[in-house]
Specification:
The chain is of the alpha+beta class. It has 13 helices and eight strands. The protein has a five-stranded mixed sheet, covered by helices on one side. A three-stranded antiparallel sheet has the order 1-3-2, with helices on one face. It is globular. The N and C termini lie far apart (71 Å).
């Protein structure tokens, strides 16, 4: 054992990068919500999918945040007969562009989003093919992904770095295996997922890791200490393993992937929330990717040679997924005051200025320059007095 441990340690020491297998474009596409949702619809929260048009994708990619008028039926087309001041026939004014309703370029989609929200009870949580805009909840009053109008959806999507990654970098680092019919990123079928709004208890969300077709690891998604989870360890592991064996093992096309589940009270049913790529972009949470990539997969060999009871016990342990929970004394348990997705946040003044369009943003920039110039003058004056 000691020799094997030293050999493993030595091989780990010389690693210059994580030993991931090639990440294929087809694998990323299989993890897209519009691909796997039809396969597991009965095991997922209620949701509707809306195909996105090129005009809407262009809107998401545009700089700044200009939201449509809430009452799209009240739009007025001004002409020179109304007033020369308010005429929209002028082409030399940047301010006129800000007054236009951006949804006029994707009116059918806008109406579809509005209708879908109503059909799902008036409240939804949005996401794109792979990512939800969880990093942008700071921009909305509810500080959550709860949306009651199309504008709520657009504001989250346009403010999210995660969504931008879906649009611009979905296939970064991937190899083309010839299985994906679309080799051009622009030809990908982008989809808006609107899930019926439900309040999820974050303590009951778990991320699960599958390698070589075996469920090898399970851990909390919320990295806080929850004492009650420890009394449920065996039940959680059993439920999740049974769900994987019954629903995913023989139906998902890739042998390496991660998936997220939710197990609400009375903890007897597993809901599939998401499927994630087996790639560095997926957060391993309480594991490390190196652990997951090198974890012993055990053996499916049930031969009579394994007579030793210790060997049987070890074999069962290797074939049982490891469940990791945050303990009271773990460093992760003290991260509850750390803002989640803090790297994606911006000062409130910047956000409010960007929502107002190019005019307020330009005004904000000018004010910022004046403040910085004044600070520099004050600092120069202080230095002269000290001299």
């Amino acid at each position: 054992m000691d020799g094997a441990s030293e050999e493993s340690s030595e091989s780990t020491t010389h690693l210059t990068e994580l030993p991931f297998p090639p990440i294929l474009r087809s694998h990323i596409l299989h993890c897209s919500y519009d691909y796997w949702h039809p396969l597991y619809r009965s095991s997922t929260p209620k949701a509707r999918l809306v195909s996105l048009t090129p005009a809407f994708l262009e809107y998401l990619r545009e700089d700044g945040i200009v939201l449509p008028d809430d009452d799209i039926d009240a739009q007025t087309t001004w002409t020179d007969q109304d007033s020369g001041i308010y005429s929209q026939d002028r082409s030399d004014s940047e301010d006129d562009d800000a007054l236009l309703d951006p949804s006029q370029h994707f009116r059918d989609l806008h109406l579809a989003v509005k209708q879908t929200i109503q059909e799902l009870g008036g409240k939804v949580a949005p996401k794109l093919n792979w990512s939800a805009p969880k990093d942008a909840t700071w921009i909305v009053p509810t500080n959550s992904m709860e949306c009651t109008s199309p504008n709520d959806v657009y504001l989250l999507l346009k403010s999210s770095d995660f969504v931008t990654h879906d649009l611009e970098h979905a296939f970064d680092g991937c190899q083309d295996d010839g299985k994906s019919t679309n080799t051009d990123d622009a030809a990908i079928k982008y989809t808006l997922v609107l899930r019926k709004w439900i309040v999820l208890n974050p303590s009951l969300e778990f991320r699960c890791f599958v390698r070589a077709g075996k469920l090898i690891g399970i851990c909390q998604r919320d990295l806080n200490y929850f004492e009650f989870l420890f009394a449920m360890e065996d039940n959680l592991r059993t439920r999740i393993l049974a769900f994987f064996e019954e629903k995913l093992k023989d139906t998902f096309p890739d042998e390496n992937f991660a998936f997220d589940v939710y197990i609400p009270p009375p903890h007897n049913r597993v809901w599939l929330i998401d499927i994630n790529p087996w790639a560095p972009r997926t957060d391993p949470l309480l594991f490390s990717w190196l652990e997951l990539l090198q974890m012993d997969l055990g053996s499916d060999d049930n031969s009579d040679d394994a007579d030793d009871s210790d060997s049987d016990t070890m074999g069962n342990a290797l074939n049982t997924p490891e469940l990791r929970l945050v303990h009271r004394d773990d460093p992760e348990a003290y991260g509850f005051n750390t803002p989640q997705y803090g790297a994606q946040k911006l000062p409130k003044d910047v956000v409010e200025a960007s929502i107002g369009g190019p005019g307020p943003m330009r005004q904000f920039a000018d004010q910022w320059k004046e403040i910085m110039a004044q600070q520099q003058q004050d600092q120069t004056a202080d230095n002269e007095e000290d001299a």
